[in-house]
């Protein structure tokens, strides 16, 4: 009976890690394709810091899951105690890192306030300077979500702009576009920069983004708890299999 239980656990762990391996391989392949794609998609991603960072995060996650699934599959099917132990240690590190991130996010959640983002925007924003990561990221966010500043265009009144220019404080990223992307044509750029409100995105990004992601907060929380639970069971299975192998 003990042998049958051990055998069942071995094949369940193999199946579980095989799906992790496939998922990691897909993410890894997709990340590599986005970064080296010769058809021009790479240039689009490279021009947007958010997409550029996301591509490398996807690549790193794919590589990690690929390695994790491979170790789990080999350790289970070959009944190799060394591989199982390495799998256990690897998934334990991931589990602790995710748990630490969740605890830190809970502790520092009060820093993600409207006042904090407003202060940072006024301190570091350099308008159309796309060589500055902070400014380029803010411009991408404002264009993508059709919003302006944290609270609205008034956030930019205290930010210096060219004194010789006749335009108002509102940056180009706050102007309405026919398509919400950097390639989208302006509805009326001159009127927008001259202060005509109907050609500006007047709503602040804090409210827009909060409303956009509010419905996904509980889903993300449930998913995080689910992932942690799966990792915990994977560690238990690995240890049980490790102890059961003679």
Automatic annotation (TrEMBL):
<keyword id="KW-0325">Glycoprotein</keyword>
<dbReference type="InterPro" id="IPR018499">
    <property type="entry name" value="Tetraspanin/Peripherin"/>
</dbReference>
<feature type="transmembrane region" description="Helical">
    <location>
        <begin position="56"/>
        <end position="77"/>
    </location>
</feature>
<feature type="transmembrane region" description="Helical">
    <location>
        <begin position="84"/>
        <end position="108"/>
    </location>
</feature>
<dbReference type="Pfam" id="PF00335">
    <property type="entry name" value="Tetraspanin"/>
</dbReference>
<dbReference type="InterPro" id="IPR000301">
    <property type="entry name" value="Tetraspanin_animals"/>
</dbReference>
<keyword id="KW-1133">Transmembrane helix</keyword>
<comment type="similarity">
    <text>Belongs to the tetraspanin (TM4SF) family.</text>
</comment>
<dbReference type="InterPro" id="IPR008952">
    <property type="entry name" value="Tetraspanin_EC2_sf"/>
</dbReference>
<feature type="transmembrane region" description="Helical">
    <location>
        <begin position="12"/>
        <end position="36"/>
    </location>
</feature>
<dbReference type="GO" id="GO:0005886">
    <property type="term" value="C:plasma membrane"/>
</dbReference>
<protein>
    <recommendedName>
        <fullName>Tetraspanin</fullName>
    </recommendedName>
</protein>
<keyword id="KW-0812">Transmembrane</keyword>
<dbReference type="InterPro" id="IPR018503">
    <property type="entry name" value="Tetraspanin_CS"/>
</dbReference>
<feature type="transmembrane region" description="Helical">
    <location>
        <begin position="216"/>
        <end position="242"/>
    </location>
</feature>
<keyword id="KW-0472">Membrane</keyword>
């Amino acid at each position: 009976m003990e042998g049958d239980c051990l055998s069942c656990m071995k094949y369940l762990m193999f199946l579980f890690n095989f799906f992790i391996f496939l998922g990691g391989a897909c993410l890894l392949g997709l990340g590599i394709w986005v970064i080296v794609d010769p058809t021009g998609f790479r240039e689009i991603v490279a021009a947007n810091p958010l997409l550029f960072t996301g591509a490398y995060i996807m690549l790193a996650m794919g590589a990690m899951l690929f390695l994790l699934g491979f170790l789990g599959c080999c350790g289970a099917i070959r009944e190799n105690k060394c591989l199982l132990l390495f799998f256990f240690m690897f998934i334990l590190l991931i589990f602790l890192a995710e748990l630490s991130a969740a605890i830190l996010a809970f502790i520092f959640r009060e820093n993600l306030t409207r006042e904090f983002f407003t202060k940072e925007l006024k301190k570091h924003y350099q308008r159309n300077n796309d060589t500055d990561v902070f400014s380029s990221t803010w411009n991408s966010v404002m264009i993508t979500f059709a919003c302006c500043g944290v609270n609205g265009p008034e956030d930019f009144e205290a930010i210096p702009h060219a004194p010789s220019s006749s335009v108002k404080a509102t940056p180009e990223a706050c102007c309405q576009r026919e398509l919400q992307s950097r390639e989208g044509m302006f509805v009326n750029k001159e009127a927008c920069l001259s202060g005509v409100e109907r050609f500006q995105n007047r709503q602040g990004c804090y409210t827009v983004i909060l409303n956009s992601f509010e419905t996904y907060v509980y889903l993300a929380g449930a998913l995080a708890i689910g992932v942690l639970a799966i990792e915990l069971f994977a560690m238990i299975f690995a240890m049980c299999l490790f102890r059961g192998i003679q």
